[in-house]
Write a structure and sequence with these properties.
about 160 residues, 8 strands, four-stranded parallel beta sheet, 3 helices
């Protein structure tokens, strides 16, 4: 029996296991792997997609956990959540900055018009949980902002190059 696999790279988020569980509830085979797993071993598993989890650190800190940039060039869909999106931004040439106020708690995200693929068919406002001290100030080249919030000018972004 063959199945598609989604790998969740764990950057230390308290929600990593919840992300994996939700994917499994959708009948998707999911494995959690450490952020420092060598890119060759990750790609050898032939994942259908990769999720970069959140984490407690700042990508701007010396010694913060980082995956190989080659992972983002491997022609495998990648979803970055919180720290994971900030790491993608940093690795791909966007700008991550300290947020004016650390955010922890409920937030409202507004999808952009036209809708990005991630927000297709969803309501005009989404209630989410936010927990971060940094924000993506500008998306990397080739990306488009697909959602914002009161405290995050880039709450979600997508690669418009179709990679």
């Amino acid at each position: 029996m063959t199945h598609q696999t989604i790998l969740v790279l764990d950057f230390g988020s308290q929600y990593t296991q919840l992300i994996a569980r939700r994917l499994r509830e959708l009948a998707v085979y999911t494995e959690v792997v450490p952020w420092h797993e060598p890119v060759e071993r990750i790609l050898a598993r032939r994942p259908a997609g990769i999720v970069l989890s959140g984490g407690p650190r700042s990508v701007r800190e010396a010694g913060a956990p980082r995956c190989s940039p080659a992972l983002l060039e491997a022609n495998v869909p990648v979803l970055g959540i919180c720290y994971g999106m900030q790491l993608m931004t940093d690795l791909l040439g966007g700008q991550v900055e300290p947020a004016p106020n650390r955010e922890y708690g409920p937030a409202a995200v507004t999808p952009a018009q036209p809708r990005g693929a991630l927000f297709e068919g969803l309501p005009d406002t989404l209630d989410v949980w936010a927990s971060h001290g940094d924000l993506v100030a500008s998306a990397p080249p080739g990306f488009r902002v697909v959602a914002t919030s009161a405290n995050a000018p880039v709450a979600a972004m997508e690669d418009v190059r179709g990679r």
